[in-house]
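Exam review. A common question shows you a sequence with its structure tokens and asks you to describe the fold in words. Practice with the pair below. Do the first one on your own.
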Amino acid sequence: MFAKSREGKRKSAWKGQYIMMRSLWTAASGMIAQQTNVDTISNNLSNVNTTGFKSEKTEFKSLLYQTIQARTTTANGEQKPIPAQAGLGTRVASTTTSFEQGPMLSSSSNTAFAIEGQGFFAVRGADGNTYYTRNGAFDWAIGANGLTLCNSDGYPVLDAQGNEIVVPNEVAASSVQVTEDGNFTYKNADGQYITFSAGIGLFQFNNPAGLDKLAGSLYQVTAASGQPLNEATANGLVPSKVHQKYLEGSNVQIADEMVSLIVAQRAYEMNSKAIQASDEMLGQANQLRR
């Protein structure tokens, strides 16, 4: 009788250890997911003053569920309407970017541009590939063909035809004016405005959230984003507007991010408490084996 009782305790202790291990892994998955959430929020807050930055949000999904009892297995062998299932935690599903319009910030620079609408600027990287951005903090750089409009990294800004935007040699860069549709003009000796470029290229995407995020507020085309749609040639697009001497600020909402940070921190702490509780219960289960 004593041996059977001891054997029953061992089986109960083993089952308890299994359940405790499951809770440990479940709570650990929550801590890992919330750490990613805090990383995302921290990145948003650190870029609150980055021109053209778009805020991001971490999305979660639940992991597999383990069936402990089926719908037809009760202690008395009777049917019951619902099963007994235990979730195995959570993980990060995606980091979604919000492309809501940022605030228009006035600038004294003649080469500062802000987009009102869904469009993106296009720049040619050092590798020859085209990248897209909402950061319109541009400047003139001396190129092989004259003054070329470039971003802060020296990448040339492209027009609607994919060509670099170059100022004619007889035109002073300070006299260049840009219309709302992105066309470059300058005032000649007669006081008339002359268009000398195809204009700043503006491009849209069917799914901008699918773009790959790169350093320097640049985005790269992916299969999820779809190919860029040229506003100058594509039909059915609502055209964007270009505002000279303005920059688009970050769309990060500091108050919302701080609230999200507190929630993520509390969730992280609760998961750590669950691990501590599981560890203590596991220790008590181990004592039953002695």
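Now try the second one, then compare your answer with the model answer below.
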Amino acid sequence: MLYHRFLSELTSRKPVRTVTSAQIADALDIDPTQVRKDFGAIGILGMGRVGFDVCEVCRAIRVVLGFDQNHNAILIGTGHLGGALLAYSGFARYGLEIVAAFDNDDRRIGSRVAGHTVKPMRAMTPFIKSRKIRLAILTTPVTVSQKLTDRLVTVGVKAIWNFTPTRLTVPPGVLVRNEHISIGLSEIAYHLRH
């Protein structure tokens, strides 16, 4: 992922056709040998004294990471954070599309948030089943997060992107990716204090 992000940022500034392992290693503070090993592991070979074709490397990384496939997701919790995630257009670069948003707040249900009409929670299970959704994004209060997780797992969700400040328990075969904003904030606060 670091390689992909670096190469994407590099090419967004100016057209670049090739890049060397030394350039990548220097930018990412890693050993150039490791870059060549990593690229070799996904079938990318450099050209002697020229380096790697940037487009070829990006394409290979996209395939390995699954960015070349569409992953439909639902978002649960359309408050400030949920609304911001719905509005973020950068997910498409990684094959992620949020196809529906759900909430239990009567004031939000039926409203439009970043182009999505907020659906009631009672519509979530049938929607997941009919659309075969495998990814859910949680931005809900802690008090309902585990209960929702259990419900999501029961209807076939295999990955949960958790923005709630709690640890979720899931069975084997289900991935939870935690994004604890408070942990990031505590790291920043500690750094600023010391």
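Model answer, second protein: Residues 44 and 56 are 8 Å apart (CA to CA). The first helix runs from residue 2 to 13. Full marks require stating both points clearly.
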